[in-house]
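W.,

You were right to be curious about this one. When I first looked at the sequence I had no strong expectations either way, so I just let the prediction run and decided to look at it fresh. Below is the sequence, 265 residues in total, followed by the output.
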Amino acid sequence: MHKLSRLVRFSINPFLPADSEGFNSFASRPAGEGLAIFFELTVALVGEVEPATGLVVNVSDIDEKVQKYVVPIFARQIRKDFRQGQHIGLLGITKLLKSAWGQLADKLGKAKLKELSLALNPFRKVTIEGKDCKMSYFSEKFEFAATHKLWNDEFSDEHNHKVFGKCANPAGHGHNYIAEVTIKRPADGDNFCIGDFERVVDDEFIKVVDHKNLNEDVPHFAKTIPTVEELAAFAWEKLAGKFGEAALHCVTIWETDKTYCCYCG
């Protein structure tokens, strides 16, 4: 079984009756006009590879179906709400994704629709896993800078260098980390304040580790080596149970753009 994901970009100007189709799918189709709203929708499918083609689904078919069946849903709702001065909160976004799911689910051949994820901006997204899903997932990325030393005093110097390589510098080294925090909440729940969510993450985790020597300044790591794995688990420990009706679903820590770890409790 394969999982195939396709990112589809489109733009909508809420004050025009329609947007030009556009011819650059890397940018967005429809293209949008002037100061339009830009969307990135990730469509994730699971299915078997067709022996004759080597494909689960031709990605151009995904693009076509999204543009034909999903974009009009977003365009109608956004134009209606904008012209009436209506705010579109997370509940409204989840409803749009559910409507999109209903339109796409039976139009992608033998493949099964697994997830729909809408990027609200480069660091924030909403995800659902079914038309009648009970929960939706909200994710946001945060940044922090910290130094750490990967070293076990029970090992010899030689063994430390063998295990940790160049990261075994006795003086430590630093990273510009990215933390993505994902919560799950009732799909039909009330809108929640993103600012409150951000404040919790900032107070409970980011301020604890940002611009710190993790080994020296964070008591948890006095006896625990602050690897990216342990840092993700520490973030979970600090944040679990802090989001009211929403539950912490996953914490992902990027140490570099090539190395990251997800921890799901």
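Here's what jumped out at me. The radius of gyration is 22 Å. And, maybe more interesting for your project: The chain has six helices and nine strands.

Coffee later to discuss?

I.
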